[in-house]
């Protein structure tokens, strides 16, 4: 078990799914967790679960598209929780449609949250992490950012952009002891995939060598590892957690 005692982690999109699993796993490893989302009530449920398990979590409602609000929130986390050592950019939205039918608003929505929101958070944590000369930044991208996917040009573009952001930030921040990596989940059973038909889920499963869809708990351990001291010589990498789907 990797230990994150005395570390403070900030997780976006922490109210459900992958973000919730990551928050619980980071707490189990010893980190105090700042829970970020627009839905305060759902964050409170995650906070209560972490507290019940003996951990510490604080709720910070924030729209990560708002760069000013993000900067204020990061300052508050560092002040109130005793520092900021780990950032997990997990928040994400989809607006699926074929390109020929995709509106400008639907094109922009995933880019604004998944990519620009992640940039806002990354930029805000850079200064405190550089000052302490230690940091871990983990961006949750997707296998479709590597492969593309019909009907998801906007989402795939945002996730591919996140991989590029990861590599660029890794090069900029390495000299200050800050690593930047990405985790690319494959097909994971979350609220995003809950509406898919059984036929589509079966086709997805057939494309996965391990023979099953993933769960949020399959993703969380990879994040804990990349946040640990033991991962200190890994940076600029994208770890695919996809059951072998993309090789």
Task: Give structural notes.
The protein is an alpha/beta fold and 247 residues long. It has eight helices and seven strands. The protein has helices at 17-28, 40-52, 67-81, 104-132, 144-147, 153-173, 198-206, 216-227; strands spanning 8-12, 32-37, 57-61, 86-89, 135-140, 178-185, 238-241. It has a seven-stranded parallel sheet with strand order 3-2-1-4-5-6-7, with helices on both faces. The protein starts with 7 loop residues before the first strand and ends in a 6-residue tail after the last strand. The mean pLDDT is 95.
Task: Give a concise summary.
The chain is α/β, with parallel strands linked by helices and 247 residues long. The chain contains eight helices and seven strands. The protein is 47% helix and 15% strand.
Set out the fold topology.
Elements: E1 8-12, H1 17-28, E2 32-37, H2 40-52, E3 57-61, H3 67-81, E4 86-89, H4 104-132, E5 135-140, H5 144-147, H6 153-173, E6 178-185, H7 198-206, H8 216-227, E7 238-241
Parallel strand pairs: 1-2, 1-4, 2-3, 4-5, 5-6, 6-7
Helix pairs in contact: 1-8, 3-4, 4-6
Key traits:
247 residues; alpha/beta; seven-stranded parallel β-sheet; 8 helices
Q: Let me know the number of strands.
A: 7
Overall mean confidence score, pLDDT: 95
Helix coverage percent of residues?
Answer: 40-55%
Using the CA coordinates, give the radius of gyration: 17 Å
Helix and strand content put the structural class at alpha/beta
Strand-and-helix sequence, N→C? EHEHEHEHEHHEHHE
3D shape: globular
| Main sheet: strand order | 3-2-1-4-5-6-7
The proportion of residues in beta strands is: 15-25%
Give the N-terminus to C-terminus distance in angstroms: 27 Å
């Amino acid at each position: 078990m990797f230990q994150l005692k005395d570390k403070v982690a900030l997780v976006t999109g922490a109210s459900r799914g992958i973000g919730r699993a990551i928050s619980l796993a980071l707490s189990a490893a010893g980190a105090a967790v700042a829970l970020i989302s627009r839905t305060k009530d759902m964050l409170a449920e995650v906070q209560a679960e972490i507290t019940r398990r003996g951990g510490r979590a604080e709720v910070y409602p924030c729209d990560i598209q708002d760069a000013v609000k993000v900067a204020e929130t990061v300052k508050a986390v560092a002040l109130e929780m005793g520092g900021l050592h780990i950032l997990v950019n997990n928040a994400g939205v989809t607006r699926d449609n074929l390109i020929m039918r995709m509106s400008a608003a639907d094109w922009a929505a995933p880019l604004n949250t998944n990519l620009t929101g992640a940039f806002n958070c990354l930029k805000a944590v850079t200064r405190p992490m550089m000052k302490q000369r230690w940091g871990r930044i983990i961006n949750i991208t997707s296998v479709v950012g590597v492969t593309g996917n019909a009907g998801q040009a906007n989402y795939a573009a945002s996730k591919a952009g996140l991989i590029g952001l990861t590599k660029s930030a890794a090069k900029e921040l390495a000299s200050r002891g800050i690593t930047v990596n990405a985790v690319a989940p494959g097909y994971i059973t979350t609220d995003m995939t809950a509406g898919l038909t059984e036929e589509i889920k079966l086709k997805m499963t057939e494309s996965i060598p391990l023979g099953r869809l993933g769960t949020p708990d399959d993703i969380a351990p990879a994040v804990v590892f990349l946040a640990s001291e033991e991962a200190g010589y890994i940076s600029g990498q994208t770890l695919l957690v996809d059951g072998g789907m993309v090789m």
